[in-house]
């Protein structure tokens, strides 16, 4: 099916219920569908939005086009959770139904104000000449989840940015509200983060761009997100078109972060000693990560596992993408750590210790059928090298291959080239991280049908990626030319 | 909203996706929505259909009208489960899309044949004069859940029954197929169960009515269901309009059963020593129970918790009804026992032993906030009497009241008159069962927001009912005039 502009922007009211029911059934039945991650009920899911704690529950929204695997007319779908693991689908929340968001209720954030959850997001409107107009819109959600939009946009686009001005994050600091907004400078066409200030959410003052780097941040910054992690300000953002000489990356668009010393809101200055932004995830498919500070003092992040302008194999099944699991953030020794939340352990069933053998022949089967939804923890000693295979066939000619060394030149490489249906080969089929030499390596791998999330060395690195393997390929194996010492546990993950 | 005939039979393709999304969100957000029982994604749910084990999973379908709390144009929705507790929504399965089921894909059963699940169900068609025509239709579901309907109806309605001829159950016995079908005799207008035989599912022979009682079985029998429980044939059915002098019942329509000695298929004779049918459930809202023999040798049943021609408070929220939990069937001392399946225990969290006090003042609070989703097991000694309250407010003026005596004149009464929103008062607000005198009483109560299921004395009786209490009414208490000895445990139930 060709996704013409007309089809992508067809009103929700012009799609039939039968079409939607068929799409929902199709998404549910897919062999690649996820079992313990947030997935679209139908069609396409992208950015997490409005991640927050409200009314005694975690609230999460996501960008949705419910009618196919295309970036069509977007809305916000809503989920709630008590534990950040078990999510309840609350359905369509923010609809593209006013003149300010007629062509998409785009990404944004949420902030608890009084007994309401205040949503701030970007409305996309196309005029009769199909020219884009962008509006920063406010809406209030009450405890019964009823949403009322403010009548007028909150922030007008200033002249110094182009229509690529979106994804507002609403923050409160010292009794003032601030909005940071992804932007493209009108003159230089470079990526910027705009900062606005307001006392009352009505009158807003443009504080200009946030000063956080001397480098040019590509041609557009999407999804800027400021979060305090262990009291340290962390700026997460997506600098589209970033020069790879500044920070190298392989994905079509990067999702990066910078650790700060201080955020001086009123001076629009993010003071940092970090020279270059760092990749938030070292895998293939993370984008648009949104983090927030929860009332329990923790900082939680969740990522869209999917990328703009990339086709995924499930497009043919009319659905696409998923959310990462929620990650708890910490800063240790100048690095952002991302870790599973404790409630993930509640999904573990049937823990199986994995056998250790000193000398491996060609390879050792850890589990012939590891299932399609599991967690695997491996602790590998220093000065070893080998390969871990999962989602593999019997002779390991197909599968995901993780090569690693914990010797002098320590590294870890994910290779998805033999996993199954090929996709996005243009941006490479391997991803490599360097490891500290001669150190133990711990891997916490979460597999969910077509998604893998690896937390390496307690979350110092994460590598998140999709793959589309034949469903009978469920072998888990390890190989090495020599001695290999490790301990491990495998758990089935069931929600 | 008034449910005109036109609206109820509007084609699925004429409802918009936006309407459906709104209905799905409305159903999800309801305060009365269930958390660990099968519930409609939107609109109305009624009879369980096609309960079976296929492709390594339990399969269940239900009658659905997805567009509101009305008996409109029906389809089959599909669910699968590994453990009979955690169900995965597979979406719309059998659509009303041929001339034989244009006005409803009505109830039926499923039977594994080769590597397909064969579905047999009733197609409802209304002609230009709005006259009802009934067809018994076959369809095959493959392992990818694709459904192909047979081109022609399998069984023509014989002249000796009226158009009230529906709900076929397909059974295989000694290499022959049999279909038992609910019917109304054309001449006497009384309820009957028709029996048909076929070697090849193509040519069917009318064996007449099943002989199972000398009494008149009301004016129509719906949902006849033959299942073998501990090798004993059990006939479950809904004799609409049954004379209460035969077997007393209080619900608008009863769901009853008879234990047999033998089912002589070829003689259309259900040999039984049981004189009168018995109520399958002693609560308020069970109907259309469907049971089947699983490959593990067990017999499992599931019930619609809802009744035809009764309005429920959630009708105002555009959704209605739910499924009971799955019940494992056994026959002991001439009585059908219904018990929770073992996997229900996997939902238990935070078991709390309940305190015993010898002498109660006015009442004893067992838990001030018992939550809205829990299991409560109580074991009460012989020669006691008292009341159990749940979904109660602080002074117990509102709530469900269970009065009981384990003395000479032992009984248990459920009173839902003070529970919350009143409904179906016409058929009484209490239900009482007699208990054996001077015996211990065990109660296993499952509460899920607006549904209660009580298994009494290990499932010798079940009492299932809906109630619609204010959500802050979560007190659990016990009262007695004198001494009361019991032990108990409370578990939060979480999926």
TrEMBL record, chains A, B:
Residues 356-483 form the Glycosyl hydrolase family 32 C-terminal domain. It catalyses: Hydrolysis of terminal non-reducing beta-D-fructofuranoside residues in beta-D-fructofuranosides. Its EC number is 3.2.1.26. It is found in: Cytoplasm. Residues 37-340 form the Glycosyl hydrolase family 32 N-terminal domain. Signal peptide: none annotated. Pfam families: Glyco_hydro_32C, Glyco_hydro_32N. One of its GO terms (biological process) is sucrose metabolic process. The keyword Cytoplasm applies. Belongs to the glycosyl hydrolase 32 family. This is Sucrose-6-phosphate hydrolase.
């Amino acid at each position: 099916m060709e996704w013409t502009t007309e089809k992508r922007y067809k009103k929700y009211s012009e799609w039939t219920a039968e079409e939607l029911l068929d799409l929902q059934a199709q998404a549910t039945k897919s062999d690649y569908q996820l079992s313990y991650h947030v997935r679209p009920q139908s069609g396409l899911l992208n950015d997490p939005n409005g991640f927050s704690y409200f009314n005694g529950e975690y609230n999460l929204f996501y960008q949705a086009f419910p009618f196919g695997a295309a970036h069509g007319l977007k809305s916000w779908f809503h989920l709630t959770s008590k534990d950040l693991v078990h999510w309840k689908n609350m359905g369509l929340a923010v609809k593209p139904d006013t003149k300010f968001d007629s062509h998409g209720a785009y990404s944004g954030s949420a902030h608890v104000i009084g007994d309401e959850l205040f949503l701030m997001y970007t409305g996309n409107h196309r005029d009769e000449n199909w020219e884009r107009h962008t509006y920063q819109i406010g809406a209030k959600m009450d405890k019964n989840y009823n949403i009322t939009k403010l009548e007028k946009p909150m922030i007008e686009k200033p002249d110094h940015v182009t229509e690529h001005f979106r994804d507002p994050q609403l923050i409160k600091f010292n009794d003032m509200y601030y909005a940071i907004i992804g932007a493209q400078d009108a003159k230089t066409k470079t990526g910027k983060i705009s900062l606005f200030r307001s006392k009352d959410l009505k009158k807003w003052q443009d504080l200009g761009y946030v000063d956080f780097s001397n480098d040019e941040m590509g041609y557009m910054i999407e999804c800027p997100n400021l979060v305090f992690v262990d009291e340290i300000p962390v700026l997460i953002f997506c600098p589209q078109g970033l020069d790879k000489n500044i920070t190298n990356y392989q994905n079509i668009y990067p999702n990066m972060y910078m650790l700060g010393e201080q955020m001086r809101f009123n001076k629009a200055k993010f003071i940092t000693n970090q020279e270059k932004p760092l990749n938030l995830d070292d895998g293939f498919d993370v984008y648009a990560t949104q983090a927030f500070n929860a009332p329990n003092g923790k900082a939680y992040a969740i990522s869209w596992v999917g990328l703009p302008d990339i086709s995924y194999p499930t497009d043919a099944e009319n659905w696409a993408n998923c959310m990462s699991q929620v990650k708890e953030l910490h800063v240790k020794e100048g690095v952002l750590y991302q870790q599973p939340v404790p409630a993930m352990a509640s999904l573990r069933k049937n823990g199986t210790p994995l056998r250790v053998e000193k000398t491996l022949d060609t390879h050792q089967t850890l589990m012939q059928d590891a299932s399609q939804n599991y967690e695997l923890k491996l602790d590998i000693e220093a000065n070893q090298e080998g390969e871990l295979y999962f989602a593999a066939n019997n002779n390991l000619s197909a599968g995901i291959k993780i090569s690693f060394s914990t010797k002098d030149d320590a590294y870890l490489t994910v290779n998805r080239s033999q996993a199954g249906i090929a996709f996005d080969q243009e941006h490479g089929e391997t991803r490599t991280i360097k490891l500290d030499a001669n150190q133990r390596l711990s891997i916490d791998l979460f597999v969910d049908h077509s998604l893998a999330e690896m937390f390496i060395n307690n979350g110092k690195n994460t590598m998140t990626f999709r793959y589309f393997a034949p469903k009978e390929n469920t072998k888990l194996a390890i190989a090495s030319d020599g001695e290999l010492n490790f301990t491990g546990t495998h758990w089935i993950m069931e929600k």
